[in-house]
């Protein structure tokens, strides 16, 4: 049974940093595409970043240069390092897994391409 558990969310002032973690279990972690999504109240869920089994990554334009996705295969853990945070980054952040190669995260359809989801961790950025 696939399980994804996010942690590391919290409240931070604009310009600050946070690191999100996603602990994965129940499947062959290394062969999956892993992604981060976010959803603000009243808005659609949007892709933030993903990382493929070969380490290749893609990012939404809104976070390029500020967020970095990485993973530790030995720990079955996915990370999202967020820097230079802005109030518009405020959202629930979700970890997701796709049992296939990654496609670009910067597509509206991306949120339909992941089979497994965590429950999310809240990030709040104040101005």
Commentary on this structure:
- With 127 residues, the chain is an all-beta fold.
- The chain contains no helices and 11 strands.
- A hairpin with a 5-residue loop joins strand 5 and strand 6.
Strand segment count: 11
Q: SSE order, as H and E?
A: EEEEEEEEEEE
| Structural class by helix and strand composition | mainly beta
What is the averaged pLDDT score?
A: 95
Summed up, what is this model?
This protein has no helices and 11 strands.
Features of this protein?
0% helix; 127 residues; mainly beta; seven-stranded mixed beta sheet; 11 strands
List the helices and strands and how they pair.
Elements (H helix, E strand, L loop, with lengths): L2 E5 L2 E4 L4 E8 L7 E7 L6 E6 L5 E3 L7 E6 L4 E6 L8 E8 L17 E2 L3 E6 L1
Parallel strand pairs: 2-11
Antiparallel strand pairs: 1-3, 3-8, 4-5, 4-9, 5-6, 7-8, 9-10, 9-11
